[in-house]
Amino acid sequence: MKTNLSRFRPLIAVLAAVVALVGTAAVAAPAVTAQLDRANIALGDSAQLTLSVSGSSADDISPPVVPGLEFAAVGQSSQYESINGVTTSTTSITYAVTPQHAGTFTIPALSRGSQSLVLHVLPGNGGSSATTGNNSGASSLPPPATSGLSAGETHTTQDGAAFARLLLPKHELYVGETVPVEIQVGLRPGLVAQLDGLPTLNGDSFTLNKLSDKPEQTQEMVEGQPYTVLTWHSVLAAVKPGEFPLTVETPLTVQIRTAPRRAQMPEGMLDGSMLNDPFFQSFFGGGTTEKQITVASDPDALTVLALPAAGRPAGFSGAVGKFEVSSELSSARSAAGDPLTLRLKVTGTGDFDRVNSAMLGAADGWKTYQPTAKFAPADSAGYSGEKDFEQAVIPMQPGRQTVPTLAFSFFNPETRRYESKLTTPLSVEVSPTSAGGLATAAAPASNASPTPASEPPRDGLRPDRVETGGTVATLRPLYFQPWFVGTQSTLVLGFAGGLIFLRRRERHTQDADGARQREASGDIGRCLAEMEAASAAGDSLRFFQSGRAALQQKLATRWLVAPASITIAEIDARLNGDSAEIRRIFALADQAAYSGQHLSMADFQQWKETIHDQLKDTEAL
User: Fold this and answer.
1) Rounded to two decimals, what is the model's pTM?
2) Are 325 and 294 members of one domain?
């Protein structure tokens, strides 16, 4: 009886792949690495601890036991890589670390060769906060009501890489009314490569104030998956009446997993369910590619009402909000004809671009000039603040003069009616001009005897007279005179001194260039040493940021610009697109800041060689 072995070839291929994976995992002992997102937090806040193990599964990862700290799992991810036939796997679990009291806590090393971590907890107000990450972009704006989508209703992109939200305090506005809003963009670690721009408003019926470059960062679980949520605070203003759908859009670059090469797949697996398994895709040649997409929030319907015509004051200039006014004069005493400064202060919340005032118009006894305005915001988006108007005024009559009340009118969207605020009258004591000084100045002129004018000849012509002209003391030629010789000598010495100065400045410039190059070489060396330390510690974020800093120093020395100005856009512009590897390093440095991706030792070595090669290649740029 003959056995047909062809039916078992797919099974044999799968077993061979599993044996190869087990053999590889057996060679490299599992190593657990730990990373804290920050070392200092306040009591009531939470830090984020990421534990990664290579060549094993999540069952081999367990949080450490530290008295006074609680560890709660908030996310898990796995990565599979195949390099030169060697397959490695990395599993990461992220924990929220919540302290129970203030103090300094030490998280012990979880494997041989790793280092312990220290967390400093400062005394706080005792309140709990779910916010983690970098809150440098926090705003002082009042939080809008969460009328947008909740976490359970969040709609992600088709591949689950990202989502966008627009949170509004209300859905009915007046033309010119401003409201604080929040824009949130959720990014799935490992799937989003980079953020390609700030969120933008989709619609011409509203305006959005400038967004901060550094948004708040928090962690959130959506449909059982961890997301890094970036939050921007801004102010939304309606510009015309009607009903409009409102959305925000953000450009992203995501990583798309490519299918394995079918020629390398064993017979019998081409149509199987394991074709889409991430492990077998990586093992048989599958990889990832980058794709640019735009993530948009769900449409939010807003109704914009026109300002009512009934009850509109004559001096209304379009201001919508809640405001208070006050006025003052620069001095309580003055002289007739001397200028004073009249100030009007408008404080409150609303659209300050529409806050205008004609100040003191035509008034008896006063000469006025065009006022100027200056706005001082009280928050990052300009929703609240103070607008100061200044006007030069001149009292024309002596005596006690009064600046009449100033009126400021606006529409209050809360009360849905127009309101007018009046300032109190201001008094100033005006003294008469000092006419005695003018009389004193004119007196000497009146007492002086008049100068007799030359009388013309009564008749006939003037007699001829000989004009002798000037005289000279010597007949010595000009170029022999001492003052001429001294002047020429001074010019020659000045010219020689200028040449010496230029030569010394050129030599100093060369010395300065050499010093800059030596300083840049030292900075590059320190960046490479930092990169080596990050590679040994398995810190991908610090590794790519140090590599990018080394390339920035090298390119800045060649292009004579500041290292911080070397960006992906600058590299593309100067290198005409011939910068794929450098651009990839810069992108990975940005991606590592929020993706949480960890590299294997083989990847660290490969990227180190790439960075060193790019540093050598920049010598010819």
Assistant:
1) 0.46
2) no
